[in-house]
């Protein structure tokens, strides 16, 4: 961090993640941890806060104050709300905005960081910052190409993005996509990298399989059809030529659709798949697998791809989000033109034909990714965060 810490600088972090914890929260959480241990006053406000979650406990131990944005109102108030006409009832978003406004009024942050899992799901929270005069920055961890804000939400989204001191995106694709969806340029938009869960200099020997041993592919992603496209992969694996090949796929991660994946595999007669659960030892995954398979429909810049490349593994991935910004087709991996069965099958065919080159392709992927992501993404982000603090508030 290059900028000196003004005395008792206050930073608030706000997360709109609709789960107890999500991978999209790593950036804000690690930045909050860094600032708290460096002497800042840090307030973290999160939807669906689980006080027993290990990540939440880490933040608390670092000195962060945590508040739940999804706290339910008292029973009498909930009952009274139900008696009102539908147009007058408060929503969960209304409650989150009120809790946020009350906490920001007491804390008076010099800067608020609003972290979104996508690019519009935290707009109501950033709107609260704007309406109450709190300087803020936005983080967008993903952009879905076919999702456009509409009606009053469009004008609110435009105003919120315009008023932000910085707008951070994880890929050039996501920045351009958001500009198209808003119908306006974002000159204060910045592309930054997420923290990854392996050392920058990690080295994982390539696991050369003995003859007749199946190739092991890892699909590392949230178990969620809508974004991650596991159904597309299952349809490819159900094709006769893939049924005849010696290859196995392990789905790593957790999510709502584990049962759906298992049931679809059973329906399609796909028996060469299994579940590995959520694994903290990412390098350990790549000690056992030869390549990453990523059939996503929407992405920011997936951590699983960056981590696989750092570990020296090629990837077979759909050309969505920022994937093509780091994965060079036929050189560091294999790009499917779209998240469709035909396109993914075509990319997997090219990869299969060159499977004896995967170790060399993975080595080039490892070299290439180290030219594209910083060695310490959190420090890089914190430096930019500090630069966004209004100087008139800090005496700078």
Automatic annotation (TrEMBL):
Family annotation (SUPFAM superfamilies): UDP-Glycosyltransferase/glycogen phosphorylase
Taxonomic placement: Bacteria, Pseudomonadati, Bacteroidota, Cytophagia, Cytophagales
Species: Hymenobacter busanensis
Stored PANTHER family: BLL3647 PROTEIN, GLYCOSYLTRANSFERASE
Alphabetized Gene3D superfamilies for the sequence: Glycogen Phosphorylase B
UniProt cross-references to CDD domains, sorted A to Z: GT4_PimA-like
Domain of life: Bacteria
Protein's name in the database: Glycosyltransferase family 4 protein
Stored Pfam families: Glyco_trans_1_4
GO molecular function, one term: glycosyltransferase activity
């Amino acid at each position: 961090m290059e900028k000196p810490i003004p005395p008792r600088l206050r930073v608030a972090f706000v997360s709109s993640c609709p789960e107890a914890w999500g991978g999209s929260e790593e950036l804000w959480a690690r930045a909050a941890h860094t600032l708290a241990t460096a002497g800042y006053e840090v307030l973290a406000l999160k939807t669906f806060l689980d006080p027993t979650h290990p990540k939440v406990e880490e933040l608390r131990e670092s000195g962060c104050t945590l508040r739940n944005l999804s706290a339910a109102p008292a029973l009498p108030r909930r009952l009274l709300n139900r008696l009102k006409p539908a147009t007058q009832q408060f929503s969960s978003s209304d409650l989150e905005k009120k809790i946020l406004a009350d906490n920001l009024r007491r804390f008076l942050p010099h800067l608020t960081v609003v972290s979104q899992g996508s690019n519009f799901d935290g707009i109501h929270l950033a709107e609260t910052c704007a309406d109450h005069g709190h300087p803020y920055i936005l983080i967008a961890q993903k952009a879905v190409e076919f999702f456009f804000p509409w009606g009053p939400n469009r004008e609110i989204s435009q105003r919120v993005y315009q008023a932000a001191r910085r707008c951070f995106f994880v890929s050039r694709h996501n920045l351009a996509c958001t500009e198209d969806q808003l119908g306006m340029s974002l000159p204060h938009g910045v592309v930054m990298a997420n923290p990854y869960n392996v050392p920058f200099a990690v080295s994982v020997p390539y696991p050369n399989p003995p003859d007749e041993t199946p190739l092991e592919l890892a699909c590392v992603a949230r178990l969620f059809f809508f974004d991650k496209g596991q159904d597309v992969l299952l349809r490819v694996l159900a094709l006769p030529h893939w049924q005849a090949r010696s290859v196995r796929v392990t789905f790593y991660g957790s999510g709502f659709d584990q049962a759906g994946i298992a049931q679809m595999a059973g329906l399609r007669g796909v028996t060469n798949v299994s579940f590995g659960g959520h694994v903290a030892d990412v390098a350990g995954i790549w000690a056992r697998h030869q390549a990453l398979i990523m059939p996503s429909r929407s992405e920011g810049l997936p951590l699983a791809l960056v981590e696989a490349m750092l570990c020296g593994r090629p990837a077979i991935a759909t050309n969505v989000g920022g994937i093509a910004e780091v994965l060079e087709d036929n050189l560091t991996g294999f790009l499917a033109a779209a998240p469709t069965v035909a396109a993914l099958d075509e990319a997997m065919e090219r990869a299969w034909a060159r499977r004896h080159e995967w170790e060399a392709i993975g080595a080039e992927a490892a070299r290439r990714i180290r030219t594209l992501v910083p060695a310490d993404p959190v420090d890089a982000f914190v430096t930019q965060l500090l630069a966004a603090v209004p100087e008139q508030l800090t005496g700078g």
